[in-house]
Amino acid sequence: MARKKIALIGGGQIGGTLAHLAALKELGDVVIFDIAEGLPQGKALDLAQSGPVEGYDAKMTGTQDYADIKDADVVIVTAGVPRKPGMSRDDLLEINLKVMKSVGEGIRDNAPNAFVICITNPLDVMVWALQKFSGLPANKVVGMAGVLDSARFQHFLAEEFNVSVEDVNAFVLGGHGDTMVPLARYSTVAGIPVPDLVDMGWTTQEKLDAIIQRTRDGGAEIVGLLKTGSAYYAPATSAIAMADSYLKDKRRVLPCAAQLNGEYGLSNLYVGVPVIIGENGVEKIVEIKFDEQDKAGFANSVSAVEGLMDAVKKIDPSLA
Ligand code: A3D
């Protein structure tokens, strides 16, 4: 059986971490594509040289030529620019939209059967544009945000309760921005819903509200600390979990930006919802029941995404 091929479009902070994780987990051979001369070649060589120490045989290639991603099984897109302090994800719109066009065409022409995971911000609208530019079926093009946002929520909850992260489950849905919707009712410690833990005196509602807000601001907190870019270890780990579920047909249930086709009463838009990822990509979109507060939060988040879609359609009328 031929080895799987993982193509990474963008070899920056997240791209390099993705390559390292893909190699360590032996997901397949890795091709890093980046427009920066020498950068993907340098990272590929460095990573190849850690193979003898770690004991992985993954072939690492760096390239400026889309032909090298030919027939990739998985493509993970981080190409573009990240945030600097004071910038919102939406400030990246215009520049990253242009990048999505060239990346979408590169994927369309060279890896049309791949499962594509987009990470470039502003996420929900970039993955929507990437799907359109690439022409790949929507079930094969998803955005990574919910796994990361949920991991941040899980981390903060585990710290607050002083329990293992392994026993904390959390769900963050909606668009990947200030309006994201951390769902306390669907978040649990060993199956016990978080609101019950508040009733049991494990924490207070005020502390839970502060954790929810810190989760929403999770990306900005790291941008403020790093000063030169945004988070990359946890974003890369999150995308690798999605790729792993696809490559091994694990059918994990993960919050991802997926195209809705009538689910949640919405169509032709990407937003964060729970999905099953298996050998066909997005196998199913899970429609959960919202209470009134969650429903309002989700609707607010959806209108923020729709606002960005309108802005994108003005920049590139071919997307209208
Ligand atoms: P960075 O380290 O700057 O890497 C981006 C790479 O893209 C650079 O090496 C560029 O040379 C390359 N690039 C630029 N234009 C092109 C192009 N046209 N084709 C190919 N490569 C190109 O950024 P990063 O890795 O830290 O972040 C990458 C993206 O992920 C940014 O848009 C971030 O905002 C975004 N991000 C998203 C999340 C989510 O949770 C969705 C989290 C963190 C970062």
TrEMBL record:
The keyword NAD applies. Belongs to the LDH/MDH superfamily. MDH type 3 family. GO terms for molecular function: L-lactate dehydrogenase (NAD+) activity; L-malate dehydrogenase (NAD+) activity. InterPro entries: L-lactate/malate_DH (IPR001557), Lactate/malate_DH_C (IPR022383), Lactate/malate_DH_N (IPR001236), Lactate_DH/Glyco_Ohase_4_C (IPR015955), Malate_DH_type3 (IPR011275), NAD(P)-bd_dom_sf (IPR036291). It comes from Emcibacter nanhaiensis. Pfam families: Ldh_1_C, Ldh_1_N. SUPFAM superfamilies: LDH C-terminal domain-like (SSF56327), NAD(P)-binding Rossmann-fold domains (SSF51735). It catalyses: (S)-malate + NAD(+) = oxaloacetate + NADH + H(+). This is Malate dehydrogenase. One of its GO terms (biological process) is lactate metabolic process. The gene is mdh. Its EC number is 1.1.1.37. Catalyzes the reversible oxidation of malate to oxaloacetate. Residues 148-304 form the Lactate/malate dehydrogenase C-terminal domain. The active site is at residue 176. Substrate binds at residues 83, 89, 121, 152. NAD(+) binds at residues 10-15, 34, 96, 119-121. Keywords: NAD, Oxidoreductase, Tricarboxylic acid cycle. Residues 5-143 form the Lactate/malate dehydrogenase N-terminal domain.
